[in-house]
From TrEMBL, chains A, B:
It comes from Solibacillus faecavium. Residues 7-101 form the HTH hxlR-type domain. InterPro entries: HTH_HxlR (IPR002577), WH-like_DNA-bd_sf (IPR036388), WH_DNA-bd_sf (IPR036390). The keyword Transcription regulation applies. Keywords: DNA-binding, Transcription, Transcription regulation. This is Helix-turn-helix transcriptional regulator.
DNA sequence: TTTATAGATTACGAAAAGTAAGTAGCTTAC
DNA sequence: GTAAGCTACTTACTTTTCGTAATCTATAAA
């Protein structure tokens, strides 16, 4: 990849938000904690990629994973404070969509 | 791709903004009209992809392309009204980056 | 005729995404 | 006790997109 004078924080934010499915997953989690299957059903994403993205978002401290040892097992995902702070960003995309698409 | 109950306008907006380089190109064009080489130098993107993205954005009515038949040729890109309207979205990403990264 | 410049386009290997089938751990039904 | 079902993944494989570098087009000056 080419180097540039671009601010690394902005660059990273753009990579995060501008990664396929990331913003939609956050949008979905703004509704509240949800389990894997619920997210998968709400979005046109496959389980394979949802699993991958949730791991990435967990590593970034944006999403939190909670395992409930019930039968069958239950796993819930919710936004951390850092994740919640992306609400305005995602809402802006939503507003733009309403006005211009 | 899986189908879902997701609002198609939101879905499209997410695909646009959440496509690699798109938001950064718009961010760059917020500075004003710029030529191809200027954008390429400002961002860590290759000419091949920049060309591809600019065509997509032009097709979406977000970016306008102006050719000046000088020697050597000069081509400038600028945001349309629709493109300008994405400023708040891009600024939100920028703000989030400043606060959380 | 060669060189230079800007803005692309093409070729090709590498990486990421899409699809479908399979796995693990535990439960209930037969 | 074994077969089937549930959730949350994971693996294998194909298709699409990306990244890098070389090439093309048009024009003009050296």
């Amino acid at each position: 990849m080419k180097e540039s004078a671009l601010c690394p924080r902005l660059s990273k934010a753009m990579e995060l938000v501008g990664k396929r499915w990331t913003a939609l997953i956050i949008y979905q989690l703004l509704e509240g904690p949800q389990r894997f299957n619920a997210i998968e059903s709400a979005l046109p994403i496959s389980g394979r990629l949802l699993s991958e993205r949730l791991k990435e978002l967990e590593k970034e401290g944006i999403v939190e994973r909670k395992v409930f040892s019930e039968v069958p097992i239950r796993v819930e995902y919710n936004l951390t404070e850092k994740g919640q702070s992306l609400e305005q960003t995602v809402r802006e995309i939503e507003n733009w969509a309403k006005s211009w698409l």
